[in-house]
Amino acid sequence: MEQDLAAKMVFVSGPRQVGKTTLARQVLARSGAAGEYLSWDNRQDRAEIRAARWPGGRGLVVLDEIHKWRGWKRWLKGEFDRHRDHVRFLVTGSARLDVSRRGGDSLQGRYHHYRLHPFSFAEAADRASERGVEPGEELPIPPRADPGLVTSLLRYGGFPEPFLAQSERGARRWRKERLERFFREDVRDLEPLRDLASFELFASLLPQRVGSPLSLNALREDLEVSHRAATHWANVLDALYYSYRFRPFGAPAARTLKKAPKAYLWDWTLVDEPAARFENLLASHLLKFCHFLNDHGGFAVDLHYLRDRDGREVDFLVTRERKPWFAVEAKLSERRVDPALRSFRERLRIPFCYQVTREEGRDVLDQGVRVVPASRFLGALF
Fold it and tell me: pTM to 2 decimals?
């Protein structure tokens, strides 16, 4: 981010309470130059923003929640073009910032965008700076790792407040209050919904469907709403970083399906079933891995899953430039290689395949598939 700010604006978006403001303040403190933090939610700061009163000399200005101003994009374009030689802009906000930036191309070419995720295993283990992998290479599985961090992440999640507190009671209270603010503030600010109660019920059904192809038609029938409403609600939840979806990888030679996506949650602690929560944990780490390679490195890296017409399925496939890079199957304790993983490896010629287990154990390489515990596999990601 500090490197990117030398030439362009930087946008940081992500879920509510993931640490965007804290990160921005840290960047501001490290900048070593005149600068200031201004939030659109503060009345006095709002007046400063509208008056465009910036620090003298070369400095960094952090604009938080500015997307709540309807004309923010056109205004910011003008300010950046006028002051780009001496004022740097770091723009942060909730998922609504991400939504707003898609509404037009007036800022195109003037910013870099980062998506901030909850803490990953590598960050919790203080290994986040060890980024040696390039797309297409084998993952650098560390020789040892702390399995207790996997337990903590599964129990408390990766959002900073509950993870750092390590308190069951505190995590429950934080989760309850966060969801209340999410539905009462974020959703209403983005998209006023007529039937908020049904929308909340729709969201509450998603944790039960984590890890399975998501049928919006089934959800529509359960709630007795239109398919258009169910589709719109799913898009709103994705846009506000409550959930995310990715589609199966299409490969005619392997008879794969291209239809229903799978849905996962940004806060995997909302998933009760142990196997589904573990799978969601892996999905979130892989998504963060792909987002970093996209946002920072500019690589075309994407996350998919595999499923063929015979019902064989592999949980995750990471692709590079639309070609298979590595596949991952999540298991709680099973160490025998899943036949589907072996089958897809042969048919798609996937360079690297991993079966990741929640249970600890030694590595096993079985006909090209590496069986590895989650603590060591997650330690290879960013």
Answer: 0.94
